[in-house]
Design brief:
270 residues, mainly alpha, 15 helices, 70% helix, 0% strand, disordered C terminus, transport, transmembrane helix, transmembrane, Carbohydrate ABC transporter permease, MetI-like
């Protein structure tokens, strides 16, 4: 309650207040609709509405990476779980090892790699690393290993179905819960990723999370040198934060059923 619920309540109420009300009045008291509108206008006017550019960038990067993640992760997990091939175990171990490495530890080598092919500043410099999602491969591997019957797939092969037809026509319809789960985790992780986009696509190409840091740098309370320039007040910053988390919240509300079924899939066999 203290560390999660109360800060969230404060965040929702902060945009309805003036900076003075935010510092002197009850922190959990509603301010006013008029003040909320003023803070909204202040946010929209910052650098000619760059907040919407940042938001659009975040949607584009995350959606493109999500599509590539599903195209790669689901077949990879299926192959690791249900197909015998050379180096299968080595690939699985590699997936597990990479999954344990913090993403921030890979930013520098990824930067050097993409710099070598001159992709820094290009949207692909964010989309391609976002699409590499070993945790999604592992989740799919666990699901296909425990929740999809090999006998069912063998029966389809006996009936003359090709391996692609077995995967697409039999395994994929059964994998809806894990697809939703992988998609959700990938979306949330990519949407909230700050360090990689900060390094790869600065300026107007940045997503909303990097934009929030720029807004923060224009708050005099946190950056005294911002005084006298175009400044952002705390209520406006709180409103920008709410806008940045709203897409994740909306997707979570509409996908709860699939997420719950995906989390419990594989808990029992048969």
């Amino acid at each position: 309650m203290v560390f999660f619920v109360l800060p969230l309540i404060w965040l929702l109420l902060a945009p309805t207040k003036t900076p003075l009300q935010l510092l002197t009045e009850n922190p959990f008291m509603f301010g006013g609709i008029g003040t909320l509108v003023e803070n909204w206008q202040s946010l929209a006017a910052f650098q000619n509405g760059i907040i919407w550019t940042w938001l659009g960038n975040a949607v584009f990067y995350t959606a493109a990476a999500l599509v590539l993640t599903l195209v790669v992760s689901i077949p990879a997990g299926y192959a690791l779980a249900l197909i015998d091939f050379r180096l299968r175990r080595a690939l699985l171990v590699t997936t597990l090892v990479v999954m344990l490495i913090p993403n921030t530890a890979l930013v520098l080598p990824i930067f050097l790699e993409l710099s070598a092919v001159r992709l820094i500043g290009n949207p692909l410099s964010v989309i391609l690393p976002f699409s590499f999602f070993p945790f999604g491969v592992y989740l799919t591997y666990i699901y296909f290993s425990t929740s999809v019957s090999r006998d069912l797939l063998d029966a389809a092969r006996i009936d003359g179905a090709s391996e692609f037809r077995v995967f697409w026509g039999v395994a994929m319809p059964l994998a809806t819960p894990v697809i939703a789960l992988v998609g959700f985790f990938n979306f949330v992780g990519n949407w909230n990723n700050y360090f990689l986009p900060f390094v790869m696509v600065p300026g107007r190409k940045a997503p909303i999370q990097v934009g929030l840091a720029e807004l923060l740098s224009n708050v005099p309370l946190f950056n005294p040198t911002a005084a006298g320039t175009v400044t952002i007040e705390l209520p406006t910053l709180a409103l920008a934060t709410i806008i940045s988390v709203a897409p994740v919240l909306i997707i979570f509300l509409f996908s709860q059923r699939f997420l719950v079924s995906g989390m419990t899939a594989g808990g029992t066999k048969g």
